[in-house]
Amino acid sequence: MEYVIFDGGSTDETVAILSRYSDRVRWVSEPDRGQAHAVNKGILATKGEIIAWINSDDIYYPGALSVVQDYFEAHPEVDVMYGDANHIGVNDEVLEPYYTEPWDFERFKDVCFLCQPAVFFRRRVVDSVGLLDEKLRFTMDYEYWVRLALSGARFEYVRACLAGSRMYADNKTLSSRVRVHAEMNSMLKEKLQQVPDRWLFNYAHALVDHWGIERERQRYLFVPLVSIQSIIAALRWNRRVTKNMLRTIWQWLT
Question: Which among 48, 79, 129, 163 could disulfide-bond with 118, CB atoms 3.0 to 4.6 Å apart, if both were Cys?
Answer without folding.
Answer: 163
